[in-house]
Amino acid sequence: MKSLKLLLLALLCLPVVGCVTTQKEANTVSASTEWRIKSLEESFLNFREQQRQAADEDQEALQRIESRLAAIEGELTGLRGGSPAPAKGTVDAPAGETWVGDLKPEDDGWVEGGKSQPLVENDEEKPWAKLPEPPAAPEPPAVIPEPEVIDRAQAPKPAPAPQTAAPAPKPAPASVPASSAATPKALYEQGYARYNAGNYPGARTLFDDFLAKYPNDDLAANALYWKGETYYSEKDYAQAILTFKEVTGKFPKHDKAAAALLKIGMSYDRVGDRDNALFYLRALQQDFPNSSAAGIGRRELSRLGG
């Protein structure tokens, strides 16, 4: 009888164990699926960002070519608009005379305007007339007297160097004050100050440090949001989208979630994904209709025709 009870108890426990195992497997599959979706989205966003950068580079190259062509056309126009080439036989001719088209040698000169001009010889026509003179003979080298040899024992001894006092010991350095980032707020403010100064990589480093040390602090949502803004300011819209989505995923009811939805929509617009841009801007209107970000979002929707 006792063994029968144990058997029944074991049979009753089997479904419970199976449920626990099934739940663990479901959680593992869910985490794996979420990671794969995030990885695929990141790859897609990076691809779109590369396409946008290539299009910008092509546009800049086209503008440079067009500018160069315009400059060449201007130069050609200036050349065409100049004075015409002088006509042969009419340029700078003396009054009442004309230049002969081709100079014709005669026995004692050349013909110009019907007049015979004597040939004038000059040194340039006779290179042998200017031969270089031979160089002057070198002067004999100067005689340098041999130095006087002095007996080392008789040489004067140098005066001893004056003794100087030993340097005074340096004072001990003053103690360095403790870091101003001793508190979560101080660390956050340092990162925010770097962001405002335009040091986006430095600000991102401090925000990452803050999130690693104080993930549950009241300023964690702000730190994560401004980390996304560092990417947005660097025009790295793919990483900006992923970071702003972390804000909406981890802090869906926080004030920064509204601003993050706005920036997600704007980032998708920057990479040329109009459909996703409209989706997140509309989600902003539904979830945070009275926020200041929603007002900006309405203007973006109007601009995109949504």
From TrEMBL:
Q: Which residues form the signal peptide?
A: 1-18
Which segments does the entry list as coiled coil?
48-75
Q: What is this protein called?
A: Tol-pal system protein
Q: Where is the composition biased (Pro residues)?
A: 132-144
Q: Which GO terms describe its biological process?
A: cell division
Query: Which of UniProt's keywords are assigned here?
Result: Coiled coil, Signal, TPR repeat
Domain of life, per the record?
Bacteria
